[in-house]
Specification:
The complex is a heterodimer of chains A (495) and B (348). Chain A contains 20 helices and four strands. Chain A is mainly alpha-helical and 495 residues long. Chain A has one domain: Ribonucleotide Reductase, subunit A (Orthogonal Bundle), CATH 1.10.620. Chain A has a two-stranded antiparallel sheet with strand order 1-2. In chain A, strands 3-4 form a two-stranded antiparallel sheet. The termini of chain A are far apart. The relative contact order of chain B is 0.11. Chain B has a single domain, classed as Ribonucleotide Reductase, subunit A (Orthogonal Bundle), CATH 1.10.620.20. Chain B is an all-alpha fold and 348 residues long. Chain B contains ten helices and no strands. The chains are: A mainly alpha (495), B mainly alpha (348). Chains A and B meet through helix 1, helix 3, helix 4, helix 5 and helix 6 of A and helix 1, helix 2, helix 3, helix 4 and helix 5 of B.
């Protein structure tokens, strides 16, 4: 072949950024109306490279191959009734939470990245962002299809859509993604591609994945592995986008810093659910939240990623010290409150068994003995009123129940508040208060479930469970549930 | 792993699918239905977009058309992510095979100079047209309501980027005869008088914030003329120039066009059936964009009239309009009673 010889880089350029042109019949500000209001300054729109050199051709080929494998596994899991191989169906209480959180999260990320790709006119970022949008659609569809295997045999999955948009606890993750979707295009990109994906998804897919594997959960393992294979591209986009903004103009650094502060804290709070799953729900436990936090957040993110960004004038995210202090607290705080709300939950909760307690003591040592074991003893006393009266008070920003302790005093619940336009808003932490104070007009509009219920926006109180998409058998204690009884019976039938 | 069940013993599922699937009006949901239906959030939004406080995160009022239940839409091709990838991976394999064949027989290398001269006139320019449409579809995907609708827009957007890349690769094959083919194409797109109405039109499509209008303008009008003109009518010109490689690649473009045309037709049918007012709205989209598109394409027809092509651009355009625009918009969908062909000469 006597074709013109050119490097891969130049050819890739012709397949991607050379397609673009500067509009002249429509003003730039009309074509890209949201590109400047966040204050990010970009001088050279053409600078960056996609290290993966993704083209449509190689994308569909690689993904089709992955999809063929994944769907073969999915069908096999169904045919083999692999749910009976689980160490204990209790693990599925984690998967019910995952369904309520992740399906909607992935779908929203899909829509967010359509928006980012349309409105960030940096060719390399745009193409990578749109490819991520397509990936996110993949993730939600595969999760919905795969988890139907569990839905067929267990409670708590059947109405995940209602649950994720109406249930009071799911407001945590719904508000998280809607926060990113209502942000400007650069913040949306920084929020999800960096704040969420780069900083936190290793815990979601690697740590949770190995825990799922230890509990013979073929579904989550299958989804975790195949999603993770796309995540490497997403993390690269996150890093590329942050560096791009920081390298382009020193004035961008304070804006980016603010986003990193906000989205570190927002992601960290959202991950409380994962802490609960690793330390409590998993029948067979692999890594504690504290260990996972030290490995991934302290070592890799705070002392790794943020070190690399120091040269641009970026410091560690605000209140990271509090996250470190909380690492031997949050899973217990979450478990204690969830134990008390199982009558208004779409999943079952339970007190740690004797076996669980041995592990928790091994992992959490003194704090377990001095604080958490005592609280469990109190809370499982037969005279203790287990069911929480009404709904717990929620933080205006992260929307978790206000159960987190003062950084300096583990016995004292932290309360923060702000006055705005004559109203008082309540927060679980300094991190959440700071986020509100920075954009009160945005956060005052949060859809706070308890308020909406009282305002009559969720139907009559006696019909709330139905509004949330909950059947009577969905909640309550795991060890008294039909899920538990069925699982035991099916295992015997199979043996 | 393998377990033997006792005769007569079985573990029966409690249900076969998610409860909300009963809301989809189909007899028995398929995998496509389960993967698609009802994913889009509809209620209890937390915040207003800070970039546009007038709309909700997913907002039915961005477009003028209305629908009782946007989730009822079904893509006739029933593509969800897995089948989309299978279909397009197969598509890419066929394209690869075609490039290999062309290479083996030197089809690009030996293409008649008259055909190379024809192709360089329009193909590298279409590369930008289709890429520009893909940017419009990034917006359409985000703004559209109804999971199945935005899913089609998403795939179309990715397809369009793929099509722009395919055109690039075809042009690269012709670099030996025409080393500056891509550069010249881009220059034509930016500066050549013949293409400026088309570029103005496209840039206006890219800022058409009524997403249903943008879909109609592109899939039922602009592409319904552009694709058949350059990937169907142009094949006759290619044959006249003793070329068959262009012909063999043309079908790939027409396949992409058929995907977008089919789902858009289904969408319009659903909207017309949903409420009578939609007819006037969609007809207004057609009445606005059809004359503009025709006006923008006319100057480009000159390529058919080149001496080696012995064609008649106006005639080709008329045939395409009859076959792909009139047959659908007037005859099948009855959106309009006649084509507003008497253009005012007005451009966007």
């Amino acid at each position: 072949m006597a074709k013109k010889k050119r490097g891969l880089k130049e050819e890739y350029n012709l397949l991607t950024r050379d397609l673009d042109w500067e509009p002249s019949y429509v003003p730039f500000e009309e074509m890209y109306p949201y590109v400047s209001f966040e204050g990010i300054k970009i001088h050279n729109w053409d600078r960056w490279e996609d290290p993966f050199r993704v083209t449509v051709e190689n994308y569909v080929r690689i993904q089709a191959e992955k999809e063929r494998k994944f769907h073969a596994i999915r069908e096999n899991i169904d045919m083999m009734q692999s749910q009976l191989d689980l160490t204990d169906a209790r693990w599925l209480e984690a998967m019910k939470l995952f369904a309520g959180v992740a399906f909607n999260g992935e779908y929203n990320a899909h829509r967010l990245f359509q928006y980012v790709s349309r409105h960030v006119p940096i060719p390399a970022i745009r193409f990578a962002a749109f490819t991520q949008s397509v990936d996110e659609l993949r993730h939600v569809q595969n999760e919905v299809l795969l988890f139907n295997n569990y839905n067929k045999y267990f409670q708590g999955f059947h109405s995940w859509k209602k649950v994720s948009h109406r249930h009071w606890l799911m407001s945590v993750i719904k508000s998280f993604f809607e926060d990113a979707m209502t942000a400007g295009p650069f913040e949306g990109l920084a929020a999800i591609a960096f704040g969420f994906e780069v900083a936190f998804t290793n815990i979601l897919f690697v740590t949770m994945g190995s825990t799922a594997m230890a509990n013979n959960d073929l579904c989550y393992t299958a989804v975790g592995f195949t999603n993770q294979s796309d995540e490497s591209r997403h993390m690269t986009l996150g890093m590329m986008a942050i560096r791009a903004m920081l390298e382009e103009d020193p004035d961008n650094a304070p804006i980016v810093q603010k986003w990193l502060d906000k989205w570190f804290w927002r992601s960290y709070r959202a991950f409380t659910a994962i802490a609960y799953i690793l330390d409590y729900v998993a029948p067979k436990k692999v890594v504690s939240w504290k260990e996972a936090f030290e490995m991934y957040i302290e070592d890799q993110v705070l002392n790794g990623l943020f070190k690399d960004l120091e040269m641009f004038g970026i410091r560690k995210p605000l209140y990271y010290e509090q996250a470190i202090i909380e690492k031997d607290r949050i899973s217990h705080q979450a478990a204690l409150i969830l134990h008390r709300v199982s009558h208004v939950a779409f999943f079952h909760t339970f007190a740690p068994t004797a076996e669980d307690q041995v592990w928790l003591e091994e992992k959490y040592g003194d704090t377990w003995r001095d604080v958490w074991a005592k609280k469990w003893e109190q809370q499982t006393d037969p005279n203790y009123e287990r069911n929480y009266p009404g709904l717990p008070m929620l933080c205006q920003t992260c929307q978790y129940p206000m159960v987190f302790a003062e950084p300096e005093d583990i016995h004292k619940t932290a309360y923060r508040h702000s006055e705005y336009e004559g109203e008082t808003y309540h927060f679980c932490s300094d991190g959440c208060k700071t986020i509100f104070d920075d954009e009160p007009d945005k956060y005052k509009e949060a859809w706070i479930p308890a308020h909406e219920i009282l305002s009559g926006n969720c139907g009559p109180a006696e019909d709330l469970l139905n509004y949330w998409g909950i059947d009577p058998e969905d909640g309550g204690d795991y060890y008294e549930s039909t899920d538990y009884k069925n699982f035991e019976k099916w295992k015997k039938m199979r043996a | 792993m393998a377990h033997q069940f006792q005769v007569g013993e079985s573990i029966k599922p409690l249900r076969t699918t998610y409860k909300y699937m009963s809301g989809l009006k189909v007899k028995r949901p398929t995998t496509y239905d389960e993967a698609t239906y009802n994913l889009e959030p509809k209620e209890n939004f937390h915040y207003r977009p800070i970039w546009n406080r007038d709309i909700k995160i997913h907002d039915e009022t961005i477009t003028k058309v209305k629908c009782e239940d946007w989730e009822q839409f079904r893509d006739p091709a029933k593509l969800y992510y897995a089948t989309y990838c299978y279909s397009r991976a197969d598509f890419q394999s066929r394209i690869k095979g075609q490039f290999e064949t062309a290479d083996r027989y030197g089809l690009f290398k030996n293409m008649a100079p008259s055909m190379v001269d024809t192709i360089r006139e329009f193909l590298p320019v279409l590369r930008h047209v289709i890429f520009g449409e893909s940017i419009a579809y990034m917006y359409i995907g985000r703004a559209a309501v109804g999971t199945a609708i935005e899913q089609c827009a998403t795939y179309q957007c990715y397809d369009q980027m793929g099509t722009a890349q395919l055109i690039t690769r075809i042009c690269l094959e012709l670099e030996e005869q025409c080393p500056t083919i891509l550069k010249d194409g881009k220059q034509k797109w930016i500066e050549d008088e013949k293409y400026q109405k088309l570029r103005a039109l496209l840039e206006n499509v890219m800022v058409t914030w009524d997403w249903a209008e943008a879909i109609v303008a592109t899939n039922l009008i602009l592409d319904a003329i552009l694709y058949p003109l350059f990937f169907e009518k142009m094949t006759a010109v290619a044959v006249k120039n003793n070329d068959n490689v262009y012909v063999s690649f043309s079908e790939f473009f027409m396949e992409m066009f058929e995907y977008e045309r089919n789902y858009t037709t289904a969408l319009v049918k659903m909207l017309l059936a949903d409420r009578p007012e939609n007819k006037d709205v969609i007809a207004s989209y057609v009445n606005k964009w059809l004359p503009l598109v025709i006006e923008a394409i006319k100057p480009v027809l000159a390529v058919f009239d080149l001496p080696q092509n012995g064609g008649n651009g106006e005639e080709a355009l008329q045939q395409v309009i009859d076959q792909y625009v009139k047959s659908l918009l007037v005859d099948e969908l009855q959106l309009i009673t006649a084509l507003p062909l008497e253009t005012t000469g007005e451009v966007i």
